[in-house]
Design brief:
- The structure is a homodimer.
- The two termini of chain A are about 35 Å apart.
- The first copy, chain A, has about 250 residues and is mostly helical.
- The first copy, chain A, contains 9 helices and no strands.
- Mean pLDDT of chain A is about 80; it is low at about 1-35 and about 235-250.
- At the A-B interface, helix 7, helix 8 and helix 9 of A face helix 7, helix 8 and helix 9 of B.
- The structure holds a DNA duplex (30 and 30 nucleotides).
Chain lengths: ~250, ~250
Amino acid sequence: MSADHPPAAPGTRFPAPPERAARPAAGPAPANGADAGPKSERTRQRILDAAARTFRDKGYAGTTLNDIAVAALLRAGSIYYHFDSKERLLEEVLDIGIARVSAAVQRAIEALPPDISPTERIRTGIEAHLRSLLYHGEYTSASFRIFGQAPRDVQSRILSRRRAYADYWRHMLREARAAGEIPAERDLGLARMFLFGALNWSVEWYDPEKGALDDFVREAAETCLHGILAPPGAGADGERYAEGAGVVRRER
Amino acid sequence: MSADHPPAAPGTRFPAPPERAARPAAGPAPANGADAGPKSERTRQRILDAAARTFRDKGYAGTTLNDIAVAALLRAGSIYYHFDSKERLLEEVLDIGIARVSAAVQRAIEALPPDISPTERIRTGIEAHLRSLLYHGEYTSASFRIFGQAPRDVQSRILSRRRAYADYWRHMLREARAAGEIPAERDLGLARMFLFGALNWSVEWYDPEKGALDDFVREAAETCLHGILAPPGAGADGERYAEGAGVVRRER
DNA sequence: GAAAAATTCTAACATCCGCTAGAATTCCCC
DNA sequence: GGGGAATTCTAGCGGATGTTAGAATTTTTC
């Protein structure tokens, strides 16, 4: 929005590099573990993180390389040492995003006892999907929020991963129907897209201040599975429909 | 993407104005009805239409005034005769968008018999909302798709109208609960946001080629009201859960 | 601690963007 | 059909943007 780095006064070599800020502390030795790579691979991470957050907040076209650079504590030109272009940066953010959601959901479901019902698998999937979007989900939320803004060729390169994730859900829903837990008339494609819509839209309005994520996620799954109207699956006793139930509870 | 209007060859006055294309046919006399205004108010409309479509497709920051101008069959500078700035153009598109959805939903619901159940009112609202998004809905879909990309001050100026629409739904949901048609434990705020999410996300994927809008809209309401799992409200006979129901019907 | 490799910075280029001034053209009314 | 108003166009300004080249600096290696 504003000029962040005015040109150096002539004679001065460095015009106050943007808060060189605590040179990542480095630690004893990067141990070459999972992500604390060879050396200043750390910078790459910092740029990616900054890009994910900025893309998510300002959109793709609305984000400047300088925005990202400022957030990553370096200058715009330096980004090109780590990434070929703004497009590739976007591509990687999008890719990491779905990969994480996909992994989180799969992991959560595979951790369930093998004989659990398809419905419970779906419920777990919903909760995991939401969690990965809303809890430290800069990549995941960016991935869903700005996919539609990405250039065509980036979209198509990301598409295979997205398709795989969709297939995973398609499969789950079919199993639920095969088990007789989804009525035969229900259009599974539509149901799946509406489910994605309900879940993904939450990044537009969810406010972590407003309540515990656990409660939110549980209630969310309930609403998706049983709809706005229907009674919660468990008890199914008619009393819940008793007159006078119109008291406002904790509506936002 | 590419340079659409190369500078005029010196000596040539007009470098082929971009397909002056069938000067809107004009008709006998504008009759000064609802929207066929005084005179070249028509141009204003053309610009607005082009802006709605382009904003929706490319996002706000991703849209150039030249993009809009090309789609509206004039040059970028001419837009300023009708609108003060790109921001105001956006503002008007967003405003028209919610106004239309809001009006369509309200109209549909008010056309119902007065003694109809809250549930049926909600169902009608869902169908009307979807219809106004998906059928010739350049403004409506733009309004929901790019609101989050709009500059803060534009958002806040649009907010009152959006809030009014949200209140309308809040009211309907409360009445449904008061009538005992929504269980007391259901969080109405969450339900409403999930509903909006499911509906609004449809502009990201709905393909009019894939089937009649009427069928789509009906099935959509059913899914939102009763969830993915529950049986369709009408019959409620258990047979629908019969074994072997896992045949794929018309999944996308 | 010096040489080599890796990383970051500066400065600039070419392009495009939103926007404006003023000339050119078109429209409309009498 | 002539004249004044309405509308559109051209041309360009100032600034921002993605990107690049090469110098400067830091880090690593011996």
